[in-house]
TrEMBL record:
The lineage of its organism: Bacteria, Bacillati, Actinomycetota, Actinomycetes, Micromonosporales. This is NAD(P)-dependent dehydrogenase (Short-subunit alcohol dehydrogenase family). Gene3D superfamilies: NAD(P)-binding Rossmann-like Domain. The keyword Oxidoreductase applies. Signal peptide: none annotated.
Length: 279
């Protein structure tokens, strides 16, 4: 059997690190795609990727396509949370740009390799907070009014809309995962009061290693099907073992998904080839 090949974004620490480490331990060939190097995963290879810079995304994808004919697994894990308003290199609000647009572009650019993979999967990591999100199509970049948490929940809702639409448009097994409430560096930016609240909340949080379990389940369990979502089975989906979960009604809105897709193609310049199962 040919060696399975995976890319995990944001794998220099936190949930992405534990996801990549476990895949490598299961004899996957793993490329960790991140801004910062981490050589603590035996057998994994680090490639530089900055999702806040579409030129970096294009360089990464071009390098991969030049060297490999196929990709079996892409885990869109990297993310930023509740930042003061800032913009990416390309002028996008940073949370929307990194969490959604960067991964939209990366997935589209890697599509030829994914379609050549062995029943390839794309796992997009969202958050239970996507249920609080709303797509503000009139002000996606928060230029008129900005809320740190609102921008984050919008980006996580965008993850859900994207992953489900990817499953509708391609034969890929596009799956969602969310880690529950886990110890990561994601939520460290914020004011002192919010930081104090998070410090108390972390007392009930699970480890980043446990937070990686839904992603691993979505990526490797043979019973997983396209357009499913997985998260912890505990109260409020905050912690526990992986189980199938339901996303919000807004996340299942096919009209919003198509609208977001068209906007994302326009903003990134990455257009997905029309694919059917018969291709």
């Amino acid at each position: 059997m040919a060696e399975k090949l995976a890319i995990v974004t944001g794998a220099s620490g936190g949930i992405g690190f534990h996801t990549a480490r476990e895949l490598a331990a299961r004899n996957w060939r793993v490329i960790t795609a991140a801004r910062h190097r981490n050589d603590d995963i035996p057998g994994a290879e680090w490639w530089e990727l900055d999702l806040a810079d579409l030129a970096s995304v294009r360089r990464f994808a071009s390098r991969f396509l030049d060297g490999y004919g196929r990709l079996d697994l892409l885990i869109n894990n990297a993310g930023v949370m509740a930042l003061p308003r800032a913009v990416t290199v390309d002028g996008f609000e940073r949370q929307f740009g990194v969490n959604h647009l960067g991964h939209f572009a990366l997935t589209g650019l890697l599509l030829p390799a994914l379609l050549a993979g062995d029943r390839a999967r794309v796992v997009t990591v969202t958050s239970g907070l996507h249920r609080r999100g709303r797509m503000n199509f009139d002000d996606l970049m928060g230029e008129r009014r900005y809320s740190k948490l609102g921008a984050y929940t919008q980006s996580k809702l965008a993850n859900v809309l994207f992953a489900l639409e990817l499953g509708r448009r391609t034969p890929l097994t596009s799956v969602l995962a969310h880690p529950g409430f886990a110890h990561t560096d994601l939520a460290r930016t914020g004011n002192p009061l919010r930081s104090a609240f998070l410090a108390l909340a972390r007392l009930s949080a699970q480890s980043a290693e446990a937070g990686a379990l839904p992603s691993l389940h979505a990526a490797t369990n043979p019973e997983v099907k396209a357009m499913e979502a997985y998260g912890p089975d505990g109260p409020g989906e905050r912690r526990g073992n992986p189980t199938r979960i339901e996303v919000s009604a807004r996340g299942r809105d096919e009209g919003d998904a198509r609208r977001l897709w068209a906007i994302s193609e326009e903003l990134t310049g990455v257009r997905y080839r029309t694919v059917t199962v018969a291709d």
